Amino acid sequence: MAEPLLDARDLVKNYGGVQALRGASFTAHEGEVVSLIGDNGAGKSTLVKCLSGVEQPDAGTIAFAGREVALPSPTSARALGIETVYQDLAVAPDLDPAANLFLGRELRRAGPLGWLGVLDKKEMRRRAAAAFHELGVSIQDVDVPIGALSGGQRQSVAVARSVVWAGRLVFMDEPTAALGVVQRERVLDVIRRVRDRGLAVVLISHNMPEVLAVSDRVEVLRLGRRVARFTAADTTVEELVGAMTGALSQEDA
Amino acid sequence: MTDVRGRSWRQRLFGANTLWIGLVLLALIAVFGAIRPDAVLTTFTLQTTLVETSVLLVLSVGMTYVIITAGIDLSVGSVLVFSGVTSAMAMNAVNDGNATGAGWGTVLFGLLVALLSGAAWGLLNGLLVAWTRIPPLIVTLGSFGAALGAGQLLSNGSNVSGVPEVLADGLGTGTWFGVPNLVLLAAAVTAVGALVLATTRFGRHTYAIGSNEEAARRAGIGVTGHLVRVYLLAGVLAGLAGFMALAYFRVASITGHDTDNLNAIAGVVLGGTSLFGGAGSVVGTVLGVFIPAVLRKGFVIVGVNVYWQPIAVAIVLVAAVWFDQSRRKARNQR
User: Fold this and answer.
1) How far apart are CA B22 and CA B18, in angstroms?
2) Measuring CA to CA, which residue among A160, A237, A218 is closest to residue A193?
3) Which residues of chain A from 45 to 74 reach within 8 Å of chain B, CB to CB?
4) Closest residue in A to B331 (Cα–Cα)
5) Quick check: A136 and B4 in contact, CB under 8 A?
6) Which chain A residues are within 8 Å of B70, Cβ to Cβ?
7) Which whole-number Å values give the CA distances from B287 to B12, B23, B72, in the listed order?
8) Contact indicator for B121, B151 with CB cutoff of 8 Å
9) A194 CA: distance to closest CA in chain B (Å)
10) Which chain B residues are closer than 8 Å to A136 by Cβ?
11) Fewer CB atoms inside 10 A, N or C side of chain A?
12) DSSP code per residue over B169-227
């Protein structure tokens, strides 16, 4: 197999007396969807925080594209092309989809007006429409506040935002948790399209059928450690659940 | 499937709060105008209403930014008083105790002192709100008392006179092609405030922070620094308002500004800016500030007891917030 895009080894993270990660490892390749699963408290969120620059691990190494890196802040992760879709929809409900897509990365007009900080709203709207189209996100109005959209559309915008800016890798923390069946399918479609563009997608989910439907590989975390790795096509929900609960473990994980 | 389009101008116009507030304002003027056409629709009434509202309008522009970040600034009236006092005293100090006959150099110095005084309080508010995360209501309630107290300490509790004649005659009561200079200054400040809020990155970030601070933070917006700048802006504008009041009244007055903060908040909220943050406009604020002003003027002219004015404003204000709240609730239920 080719060299992994992201290769984290033996990460340790303590919160006071609680060991959230006890030597956790994680691997992701370009052009694949890898699911990160585990029971509540297994350390999934902590691991993602460490890999997206939100938290710093106490020990362990993170290699990105073959180079060892430090991720002191979300900005530094972003600079490497790593984006995160958060579980709790980090969007501004009063702003329109285009404004949300460009939040923190607003385009400015060319020339003196741009130096004064004047935004190029037209260009942002145009690019946003193109990005939504490409990802198959259907938004009827690009200039209504995002709070007036349905939950699925809101989540699609949040996903689209990360994907548009992610050069290499996207973490998605339960992106379908609050969605209905049809909307969930839409988001999974978006995930597949992102993979087909050659990005690495890390999906965190509790929904095993969904994990098997969309992933290429699955890595299982238990008590702060990676306990198993599967190829999605060759495994079953029972095996995954067994690995999560400790009934099954792999020596070389 | 991917049908992305903008709304037509008609949908936008009728969807906007601003339109309805504008209509309320026009209706008020129409009603008063119909009752006393001879007294209401005159240049003099228009001029005095505009002049009397200029200072409040400048305060309200800053307040609009603060409220859009889901904050509040109770200190603006006291900062206005403080800045007026420091400015007047500084101008007197460089003119042997009485600046009445001083020239434009002194006036510019006084303006600078007023702006810096306002900036200092704004900076203090901003740092406390952004860094310590003390609720803005408490921070600015503190500076509301402290700024007034500091102004009274400096002036020994009395008004400061000795305002340069050139300032009072120029900015205070002067006109330019029939338009009072005070109004021109307020209009310029308002126009710049409106443009910055609606078209620039600074404005966009102001909305984003008020709409979802955590989302703004995660999107890489420097939330702490931005909040400091927003309160700083409100402070500087309060300083400017203090200087304008100084020019108009020819004295740095200690009293009479106790409820400026509430009037500014009422104007901003009437103008459709949401106390929950994330939504609002300076254009709306202009309309919102003039509704109480027109009510007051109208009541005086048509002979209604002027004490009805605060009651009328209160009713409109509560109705406006109720409307905003139910609209948000309806939206978030989807």
Assistant:
1) 6
2) A160
3) 74
4) A148
5) no
6) none
7) 18, 10, 20
8) no
9) 17
10) 1-2
11) N
12) IIIIS-EETTEEHHHHHHHHHHHHHHHHHHHBHHHHHHHHHHH-HHHHHHTT--HHHHH
How do the domains of chain A map onto residue ranges? 92-159
Q: Which helix (H) or strand (E) holds A190?
A: helix A181-196
Helix (H) or strand (E) holding A237: helix A237-245
Cross-chain Cβ contact A151/B215 below 8 Å: no
For residues B93 and B84, give the distance between their C-alpha atoms in angstroms, rounded to a whole number: 14
For residue B212, give the nearest of A4, A46, A159, A91 by alpha carbon: A91
Among residues A15, A1, A23, A35, which one has the least CA distance to residue A216? A35
Say whether B202 and A117 touch across the interface (CB within 8 A). Answer: yes
Candidates A95, A100, A155, A157: best to mutate against B (most CBs of B within 10 A) is A95
Work out the widest C-alpha separation in chain A, in whole angstroms. Answer: 65
Helix (H, G, I), strand (E, B) or coil at A99: helix
Nearest CA in chain A to B223: A104
Which of B3, B12, B211 lies nearest to residue A140, judging by beta carbons?
B3
Tokens describing residue B246: 């100084």
CB-based contact, A142 to chain B, within 8 Å: yes
Chain A partners of B334 at a C-beta cutoff of 8 Å? Answer: 148-151
| B309: Cβ contacts below 8 Å, ≥ 6 apart | B292, B295, B296, B299
Q: Give the pLDDT of chain B (334 residues) as one tens digit per residue.
A: 334 445 555 555 555 667 878 888 899 899 998 988 888 788 888 888 999 999 999 999 999 999 999 999 999 999 999 999 999 999 999 998 888 888 899 999 999 999 999 999 999 999 999 999 999 999 999 999 999 999 999 999 999 998 999 999 999 888 888 889 999 999 999 999 999 999 999 999 999 999 999 889 888 889 999 999 999 999 999 999 999 999 999 999 998 898 899 999 999 999 989 899 999 999 999 999 999 999 888 988 888 888 888 898 888 888 888 887 887 777 666 5
Cβ A140–B334 below 8 Å, yes or no? no
A148: DSSP letter:
G
Q: Chain A neighbours among B 20-79 (CB < 8 Å)?
A: none
Helices in A70-172 by DSSP H: which ranges? 74-79, 97-101, 112-115, 121-134, 151-165
Between chains, do B200 and A145 touch, taking CB under 8 Å as contact?
Answer: no
* Cα–Cα distance for residue pair B48/B175, rounded to 1 Å: 12
Q: A18 at the B interface (CB within 8 A)?
A: no
Residue from B291, B296, B238 nearest B269 by CA: B291
Strand order in the sheet with A67-68: A18-28, A6-15, A59-64, A67-68
Q: What is the dihedral of CA B8, B9, B12, B18, to 10 degrees?
A: -170
Looking at residue B16, its amino acid is A
Q: What is the residue type of B294?
A: V
In one-letter notation, the amino acid at residue A12 is V
Contact B67, B266 (CB under 8 A): no
